């Protein structure tokens, strides 16, 4: 085939599949989604991302861009496993609600019930930890963080690292995103259940839902189809900075795939893990002590896209960024995962969700 014939062939394929006037709406949506993604994820020889759209519990769009491993020149696929970063908080919040459903704790319980020596622990409720309204110091903002970033920390050691820091405000007074609160929740899950956090999540969530490609993060264990994480420097891409996953712990140390995350979303919708009353708590809006309502439930931001209510959360950890958006009124789920913290899927995921609202019926 001559070069000119190749050009004509590619042009013909574009007209058949990505012509905006094509009457096949599914093809039109797929091409428009690709176009949104390629505005940012356009380096086919660099790290990239995987994106998925589902409606009514079933995948209707999925595509991968870039490399899963630069050194081995391996392309990303929909089956690659990514670090979730703060999307981990969804699982931690649901684990707490599962324990409440079992009668083992209550979200109105004070922290002092489980950690008697926690400063002002009688005033800080589990609810405050779940909603980022506790006022405790976020360990990610502490200058001393670098001194423990690569150390193996127990949950008790992590709590000790920040618990004596001055508080930023009184419990319930403000909403301020806080990773320490979710580390505390992971520790409480261990104290109440008698199991390690990672074991509790694996047995009570991953295995029940069938999330076979999801796990607690590790740089040492062999993880099948792992996507490797990268940073981008002036001279090019470099491997991600190594950290101990015992530091972010229950605030950011889980790994998953787009397919497993759809199983997770479907399990929430079908009440496989939580009854309707407990599920509603995760997605409710709450008030500060001032009476002001804020847009965060338990593990999810409660927002809107084009005036339509949605639930969303992102994640960022060395080498990875993630974003998930669920629109309950249309049962549309959109998720994006990047294996370079130089490329954020946040805006693209929101744009694809907005596109889905316009085009999917």
TrEMBL record:
User: Where in this chain does the record put each Beta-lactamase-related domain?
Assistant: 44-343
What residue range is the signal peptide? 1-23
Tell me which InterPro entries the record gives: AmpC-like, Beta-lactam-related, Beta-lactam/transpept-like
A Pfam family that this protein carries is Beta-lactamase
Q: Which domain of life is it from?
A: Bacteria
| Gene3D superfamilies referenced in this protein's UniProt entry, alphabetically | DD-peptidase/beta-lactamase superfamily
Q: Does the keyword Signal apply?
A: yes
Keyword entries, A-Z: Signal
Name the UniProt record assigns to this protein: Beta-lactamase family protein
Organism taxonomic ancestry? Bacteria, Pseudomonadati, Bacteroidota, Chitinophagia, Chitinophagales
